[in-house]
Amino acid sequence: MRIDKLLAHAGYGSRKDVKQLLKNRVVTVDNKIITKSNVHVNPDEQSIAVNQKQVHYQQYIYIMLHKPKNYLSATTDRYEKTVLDLVEEQYQHYDLAPVGRLDKDTEGLILLTNDGKLNHRLTSPKHDVFKTYFAKVDGHVTNDHIQQFKKGVILDDGYKTKPANLVIEKSNPVSEVRLSISEGKFHQVKRMFRAIGMEVIYLKRLSIGDLLLDKTLPIGKMRLLNEEELAYIVSIVGKGV
User: Fold this and answer.
1) 172-189 pLDDT per residue, tens
2) What is the mean pLDDT of residues 92-113?
């Protein structure tokens, strides 16, 4: 990798900023001063430093975020806050993007990464990764609805959903349920309940496959995936690829 690209990815500013660092003779590779931006380096095998401080380079980063309401699942927006506004400053320089989407008023688990290949494969419908949601629904959800969801329901545009797993936690005038779906059509959970004459009044994503939202992670906060979680995500990507 070129030294200027590596330092830019590691948070040392733009390519222009990095060129100035090189010009100032404060960048070293294996204790040798580097002044040319096109020098290729291997961060796994070479010691790279700026102003005598070791550069810790990480090509890809994977973040679990406990999304609150009123944030868009987007990288930028002219008028609204996005999930990237919740990322800690030390990770802001990575070119992060959300894996899939949650509606503005939906809470819960969202993944952020700069690994475009992993992002694409996790969101690809062919992998059938189930996402589980907790929902409060205006209406009595019954066992008949469980069977309807198992067969798939017809949405407002005529699309028939894939089979979904509906679990009733409370059947009341406002019911509490868990719903697992393996696809991600626009507003799908809300539209599925609307198809049976009910409205979702609260929605939270709990898991992506076996990756669970950390119950100790406060809403609006983030943390890096641990090794076990990352290994699981990679294993999902590897299936059928």
Assistant:
1) 999 999 999 988 888 999
2) 93
Note the Cα 238 to chain centre separation in Å.
Answer: 18
Query: Buried b / exposed e across 207-217, counting CB within 10 Å, b at 16+?
Result: bbbebebeeee
Q: How far is CA 158 from the centre of its chain?
A: 29
- Calpha distance 189→106 (Å, rounded): 11
Those residues whose C-beta lies under 8 Å from the C-beta of residue 156, and which sit 6 or more positions away, are 191, 194, 195
pLDDT at 238: 67
Dist. CA 119–CA 61, nearest whole Å = 12
Q: List Cα–Cα distances, 90 to 17, 61, 74, 99, 224, in angstroms.
A: 17, 12, 19, 20, 12
Rounded distance between C-alpha atoms, residue 241 and residue 238, angstroms: 5
Q: Is 103 a catalytic residue?
A: yes
**Alpha carbon of 210 to those of 80, 98, 170, 201: distances in Å?**
31, 18, 24, 25
Q: Which of 103, 156, 157, 214 is catalytic?
A: 103
What is the pTM (predicted TM-score) of this model?
A: 0.82
Among 61, 73, 60, residue whose Cα is nearest residue 184 = 73
Asked whether the predicted pLDDT for residue 134 surpasses 60, the reply is yes
What are the residue ranges of helices labelled H in the chain? 3-9, 15-23, 116-123, 143-151, 188-195, 227-238
68-93 per-position pLDDT tens digit: 999 999 999 999 999 999 999 888 88
